[in-house]
Amino acid sequence: MTLVQPSPELQINIRKELNEDINTRDRDLQHIKEWLLKQPHLPDTWDDTRLMTFLRGCNFSLEKCKKKLDMYFTMRAAIPEFFTNRDMNRPELLALSKIGQGPPLPGLTPEGRRVTIMRGLDKNIDTPNLADLMKIALMVGDIRLEAEEVGVAGDVYVLDASVLSPQHFAKVNPTIVKKFLVCVQEAYPVKLKEVHVVNATPLVDTVISWVKPFLKEKIRNRIHVHQNLESLYKFVPKDVLPEEYGGTAGKMSDFNEQWIQKLKDYTPWFKAQESIKADESKRPGKPTNYEDLFGLDGSFRQLTID
Prior knowledge:
Distance between the termini: 40 Å
Low-confidence stretches: 296-306
Radius of gyration: 19 Å
Order of helices and strands: HHHHHHEEEHEHHEHHEHHHH
């Protein structure tokens, strides 16, 4: 499995977009590492590549990066259903990989954005375990914190709604959805540029309306619903897309299998990371109230950062 890295020319443009200065980025990284050491409730150290990914995702704002890292480690403690037992060899996770696919695609758009396609494969199955699906998505995200070696200019998600049914939607637990959306928006250094829904049915409008209160306004405004693939190609060129979507990049099933293998290969790392999380008993001041963090009023509680 390979994620194509940006060309040297594209890297220059991406660095401009991410506010990355090759002359000062190592100093910024050292600042974050020293800050981590001073936080009694956070891990003393983490690997440099992932810390640099957080800096890039925060446009090299040190304060934003600190808040994002604090929230990331807090989420790892707050949502054990996402961040424990992350072993892709477990039968229940492997079973999900047979009924759905969600691989990041190898290539980049001309702007330097990474595209991920998510789709179900069978309309006639019961609603799958959403917490485990979200667990797998975050496992992929954690690998990408390392695998995006020089940074990308943001993310594009293509969501295929072809197997979505009212029966599936009726069984969705809003609490787990809220936890996931708070986590990806507040704790991961993702620069979400576009969300494209393809093979849309009338039900899609209902689902989007239901999800929107959980989304930040700028993300709500980046959702595009397509009646056909031709309109998708205006945003995502065919040479990035797999054959199943009229593209020329290869087969979606091959990309998915490569990522499943990658997740299996990372099993020891995922196991080691289970203890890398915030310890609220050591947080200066008031410990985080997880219920406040995931309040269903649509607002996000901000963590206090020293």
